[in-house]
């Protein structure tokens, strides 16, 4: 990844000036489960002269060299996929949000705002593709594959019946996504999204793993799910290495590339976020009930004159 370097006519601010505020608690995809707030830092440039600050998203590199996934995924594929396609999404996003209400918002906020409950706004595709590809590169690793373990494996067996059934379902979703898109493993915490309704706490049965597929740039964040793993099934992800043999790409992706450690880590973070959000929801509900029944504690401040005497 190349940092966006201020031009000679610009003046850099100290790095501390560019830290984004933490994402709000309970945000369904806070941290995207693998990006710290530090990593979410954007390159900001203050132009010389009148104060003008612009914030730009950076192209983040895969966490390994571009030839590290060979022979399963060639360096040439990564040079095109990351170096050109992913780069274009980030650069186009920066152009689209410049001097709009979206400038300065987190990538996740831009995704949900521009998804617009399915009535997709122009910015959505570049924003979601930028996020999806960061997530994709960190879903895999050199020497990946093998089997999941621990709580992740237990949940897979609970929600799909067996590891083999889960793998079959994931492969089917990836193979049958018509045209460009993505296949996902996600942790689902359903929330009722109805006007004038209060979102209920998710029931235990809602907290489960699901396999979903999505067209084009759509990802599970827009449904309030917690993504854990993704397979990019756009042709640019596999055509140089596998031509039209998408099922072969999917099989070797799962067998040799998936970082189950990353998936497990994302699951644990999702659980923590959900638990935190539930506590906050309970607290708010309690406060509202106390307010409604008049039980809320009211602090009374007596009037005091200039000499400190209570009137
Ligand atoms: Fe891609």
UniProtKB/TrEMBL annotation:
Entry cofactors: Fe cation
GO molecular function, one term: superoxide dismutase activity
Cellular localisation: Plastid, Chloroplast
Keywords on record: Chloroplast, Iron, Metal-binding, Oxidoreductase, Plastid
EC number of this enzyme: 1.15.1.1
Residue span(s) of domain Manganese/iron superoxide dismutase C-terminal: 148-266
InterPro entries to which the protein is assigned, alphabetical: Mn/Fe_SOD, Mn/Fe_SOD_BS, Mn/Fe_SOD_C, Mn/Fe_SOD_N, Mn/Fe_SOD_N_sf, SOD_C_sf
UniProt protein name: superoxide dismutase
Catalysed reactions, as listed in the record: 2 superoxide + 2 H(+) = H2O2 + O2
Pfam families: Sod_Fe_C, Sod_Fe_N
Biased composition (Acidic residues): 302-311
